[in-house]
Amino acid sequence: xxxxxxxTIAILGVLAGVIHLSLGGTLFTLNAIGYFVLVTxxxxxxxxxxxxxxxxxxxxxxxxxxxxxTSIGAWLVIGGFYWLGYLTKAIELTLIILVVVDIYRVHGxxxxxxxxxxxSVRWAVATIRSH
Length: 131
Fold this sequence. Notes:
The chain has helices spanning about 5-20, 25-45, 50-55, 60-80, 85-105, 110-130. With about 130 residues, the protein is mainly alpha-helical. The mean pLDDT is about 95.
C-alpha cells in the first residue's frame, strides 16, 4: 500500500495531464502542466527524507485535490461532453478519492492532515518573523 497507492496516484495524475496535453490549446496545455508539476511535487513529498519536505508533504495532496476538483468544475461549466471528457473526469474523480485515502494513510485522517498543515504554516510564519 505504501508504494502502490502513491504510484497509482502519480500515474492517474500524469494520465490526466497527458489527456489534457493531447487536446491542444493554451488552456488544456496549462492544465496539463499543472498536473505534471503537482504530480512531481507529490512524488518528491513521498520519497524525500529532508525534514522541510516532510513538514510540507500535505501541500501537494491538497494541491492535487483542489486542482482535480477545479478541472472537473471547469469542465461542467465550459462543456466538452464527449467520451474523452467523461473518461478524464472519471480519472480525476478517482484521483481525488485515492488522494483522500492517501491522506488517511499518511496523516491518519483529515484531523491529522489539518493539524500537520497548521503546524507547518505556523512554523513557516515563525521562521520568517525570526529573520
